[in-house]
Every structure is written in structure tokens, then in C-alpha cells.
Amino acid sequence: MxxxxxxxxxxxxxxxxxxxxxxxxxxxxxxxxxxxxxxxxVILVETPRLSRVRSQKDKKKKQALNLSLVMTDKGFYIKxxxxxxxxxxxxxDAKLCFPKREGKYTDRVLKELQHHMWFLYASKYKSDxxxxxxxxxxxxxxxxxxxxxxxxxxxxxxAIREIPSDARNPPVKHAIPSSxxxxxxxxxxxxxxxxxxxxxxxxxxxxxYYRVTLALGSS
Length: 219
Description:
By secondary structure, the chain is α+β, with helices and mostly antiparallel strands. It has a domain at 67-174 and 203-214. The chain is 32% helix and 16% strand. The chain has five helices and ten strands. Strands 1, 2, 3, 4, 5 and 10 form a six-stranded mixed sheet that branches. Helix 3 runs parallel beside helix 4 (150-161). It is elongated.
């Protein structure tokens, strides 16, 4: 008797891609970590005329005061391109200009800070040679540490914005408006500007450092 050949038929099942997907997911973080070490080099070539203009701009930039106010858990540090800007009598080694009192930025500390910032603004660095533009005289960089409370940052911004009415070093030569360093909205030009008092801008009567760059997360 002739034996019949039995043909076995195999059906192909679905391909399991789960292992390879797991491997790719594991490799992605390593690829991202490696990407940060890749640096792209760019060589800029300038004409002599451009280089001359750029060098003049760099020279002005180097002459800028670059005043900065640093807020930490210990207190306030003040620095410029000349180094620490603490009041006289404070140790140069510490460079902590205004330490906290009782672990807080008290009103007294903020008042002392405001008076010293007025001294820097109106007496020590009042000459135009320290600034690249008239607006730069009103400019300051505020650098709070991540642990500084938001409300303390706002109180500091208010303190350094306005000229202290009871300033003595140097004394204020004009009456400061009760509204302080206030802005008004110009409906004609749809923009914000400073109020005027007797034909003089409030900016010149009451404003100190109103152009503040807030550098969050810096140290």
C-alpha cells in the first residue's frame, strides 16, 4: 500500500516587535546624553572696516558699568565691572553688602539697600563714561537664587526702582512726586510712558533703576 505523504502546513504568526522597541527606548537617553558633547565650530571672517566698527562697539561694551544685584539666602551682593560695590567699611573678603536680619529681607535692609543704590546712581557712577546710552544708567541686572521667595524679589524691585525721598548721600535736590516712578498709558500712541510734572518727566524726578533684567536661575 502506498503511503500518502502528509504535508504539514505552517502558518506564520505576528512578528513580536516588543523587544526591539524596548531596546530603542533604552538607547534614546544615551543618544541624547551623547549629543550634548557635540560642538560645532564656526569661523567668522570680517572685513577690516567691519572689524574696526566691531572693536569700537566692544570697547564701549567693556566700558559699561554692568551693575548687578545678587539675592541669596544670606543677603544682597552688589557688583559691577570694577568688582564688589559694597558700602565703605564692609570687608572686601566677605563681599556681602547687606546681610539678612533675623533670616529675613526686612524693611530696614531694603531701605539701606535703596539708599546705597541711590549713592551709586547719583554720586559714584553718575558720569556718562560708565554707560553706553542714557537708558543704561537706569539699567540693572537682578540675580535671585532659586530659593529666594517671589515676594522678596518684588519688594526688592520696588526698592531699587524709586529714588528714596529721604536720601542724604547725596541729598535729593527736587521734590519727589507722591505717585513715585509711575507710568501712564498713552491712548494716542497705544504705549506706556512716564507721567510729567511741570513739563519734566517723572522718570527724572522719581526713577532710579527702572530697567531691570531679571536673571532667574543664575548664580
